[in-house]
Amino acid sequence: MTTVEGTCDPAFSGVRDVFERNFAEGRELGAAVAVYAGGRKVVDLWGGVADRRTGRAWEAGTPCFAFSCTKALTATAALLLAERGAYDVDGPVTDWWPEYGARGKEGTTAAHLLSHQAGLPAFARSVSAEEAADAPARAAELAGQEPEWTPGEGHGYHALTYGWLAGEIVRRLSPGNRTVGEFVRDEFAGDRDLWIGSPDDVIERAAKLTARRPTASSDAPAGGGTTPGAPSGDDNILSRLANAYTDPGSGFNRAINNPHPGKGGYNNPVVLRAGWPAAGMLTTAPALAGFYRDLVAERILRPETLHEAIKPRVSGPDRTMLVDSAFGLGYMRPAMTFFVPAAGRESAFGHTGAGGSIGLGDIEADLAVAYLPNLMGDQLSGDLRAYGVLEAAYGALTP
């Protein structure tokens, strides 16, 4: 029986109940969850095993790979530069990246890069983990590539290329031409446990990701039916997504598996040291939730910048993921790819990560949540472990 450790305000005991139940039902190996409400940390829980191979326990400061939760920090870095006047979000990319106008991309704006409208969801060739560590070279490669659709005319999830596109805003326009990881640490992460490009000592104590085989019962909604947020009348939508995931020729497969992380997958130190700006962050649940707390409290971006950034720029059918998605300027908005309880569907923003991780902020509810597991879930468009945590957190806010 896994013992869950940490602290939980009695008002948020439902979050602890969900978290403990996930372990009791065998849906977790190791995990952590943190919640801030009204700017106050009300949940900080962890439990289980950080490394299945050695049996090492998950501890209070155990970092975990957060996959695409990274994108929210990359977007925030880019938005902070726009706020300071370094570039115009709705202006052409060629104003500050002249080479980007090649092969029909001259009309691309920075907003297109930030909202998955650039038409470059995947590299045209196979890229190794070692090559992916060279951010300027990968950005240059994308600048010379032909888009798969006219930029701005539709959107499709740029699972990995997002980092070298939006990240180039930071690299080119930040004083000192800093990497995303350097800029984030200098400007708003401080000494918080947020690493986009991790030192070896952090990699050594990080949780190790473990994949699990899909089963008929895993993460199915209680009582059958469709996943929360799924459109009615399309019972095959998750199976279509699963087929796209395994089809080497599908846009989804090409987007999420290239660059390939190499031996060890996303436990590979080559990837963790490089800090891919779309999916390369090691963090703890309190640190990620604290990032969203600071966003909600207007400590990182001005209110007008954040409000403009979380307005949906695109919504509807996603050319890459084959389900409906919604994005502001880098932040996900509630949709099939970002399941949020009814109480947050108008105001929540944030980002999910492959395998089940999530970071969420809600200005109206004054809420920030982060959940990080190392047993990767098999729900490709969302994870009901995270949904249960969110549901309990929002439920605790209701008198």
From TrEMBL:
Q: Region labeled Disordered — which residues?
A: 210-237
SUPFAM superfamilies on file = beta-lactamase/transpeptidase-like
Question: What is the superkingdom listed in this entry's lineage?
Answer: Bacteria
What keywords does the record list, in alphabetical order? Hydrolase
Has keyword Zinc?
no
Q: Tell me which residues make up the Beta-lactamase-related domain.
A: 19-393
* Pfam families reported for this sequence: Beta-lactamase
The regions listed as transmembrane in this protein's record are: none
Q: Does the keyword Hydrolase apply?
A: yes
Which InterPro entries does the record associate with it?
Beta-lactam-related, Beta-lactam/transpept-like, Beta-lactamase/esterase
Cite the GO molecular-function annotations of the record.
hydrolase activity
What name does the UniProt record give this protein?
Serine hydrolase domain-containing protein
User: Lineage, please?
Assistant: Bacteria, Bacillati, Actinomycetota, Actinomycetes, Streptosporangiales
